[in-house]
């Protein structure tokens, strides 16, 4: 009976391990696809700011994103190659393309969310002040009516009553 229980436990562990492997592969594939799409968008925003869904991708941010990806694509495989030489661990040649693309993904996406504070709107405005983004201009034949300026209301004051006069009546 003991042998049957250990087989069930091993099968359960193998099933859990396979599920974790599939979930991790799905997450990494999604991250690789997102990195590829963001890289294409960064190439479009390389020289001129790009407006997407209310967000602005500046050329500086685009260059930093691609630069981090290339840095990760070079440094991580170099470190792994160095470690395999020092530790004498053989790595199959089939692993290197996955390692290179995965390193680009890790390098480009790793610091992308931590770089800039989204609440700092003044820095975005200063960045866009001299950029190529133009605001929508009104048509020449459009007439505008300017509302007259209303005078400022006097400040609120509490009413004053003479309680003794009210009681005498």
Instruction: Give the end-to-end Cα distance, rounded to a whole number of Å.
Output: 103 Å
Strand order of the largest sheet: 1-2
The Rg value, from CA coordinates, equals 32 Å
Number of separate structural domains: 1
Q: Low-confidence parts lasting 5 or more residues at pLDDT below 50?
A: 134-139
Listing every helix as H and every strand as E from the N terminus to the C terminus, the arrangement reads: HEEHHHH
3D shape? elongated
Strands, total number: 2
Please describe the biggest sheet, giving its number of strands, its sense, and whether it closes into a barrel.
2 strands, antiparallel
Q: Helicity range of the residues?
A: 55-70%
Characteristic terms for this protein:
5 helices, mainly alpha, two-stranded antiparallel ribbon, 169 residues
Provide structural commentary:
- Mean pLDDT is 78; it is low at 134-139.
- Helix content is 61%, strand content 4%.
- A hairpin with a 2-residue loop joins strand 1 (50-52) and strand 2 (55-57).
- The chain is elongated and about 105 Å long.
- Strands 1-2 form a two-stranded antiparallel sheet.
- The relative contact order is 0.09.
- The longest helix is centred in the N-terminal third of the chain and has 43 residues, at 2-44.
- By secondary structure, the protein is mainly alpha-helical.
- The protein has one domain.
- Helix 1 (2-44) crosses helix 3 (95-110) and helix 2 crosses helix 3.
């Amino acid at each position: 009976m003991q042998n049957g229980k250990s087989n069930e436990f091993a099968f359960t562990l193998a099933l859990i391990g396979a599920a974790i492997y599939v979930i991790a592969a799905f997450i990494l594939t999604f991250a690789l696809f997102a990195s590829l799409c963001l890289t294409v968008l960064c190439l479009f925003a390389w020289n001129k700011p790009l407006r997407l869904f209310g967000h602005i991708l500046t050329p500086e941010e685009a260059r930093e994103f691609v630069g981090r990806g290339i840095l990760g694509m070079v440094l991580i495989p170099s470190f792994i190659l160095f470690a395999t030489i020092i530790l004498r661990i053989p790595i199959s040649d089939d692993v290197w393309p996955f390692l290179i693309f995965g390193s680009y993904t890790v390098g480009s996406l790793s610091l992308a969310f931590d770089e800039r504070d989204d609440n700092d709107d003044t820095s975005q405005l200063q960045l866009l002040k001299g950029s190529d983004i133009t605001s929508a201009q009104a048509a020449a034949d459009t007439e505008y009516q300017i509302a007259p300026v209303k005078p400022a209301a006097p400040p609120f004051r509490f009413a004053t009553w003479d309680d003794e006069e009210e009681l005498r009546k």
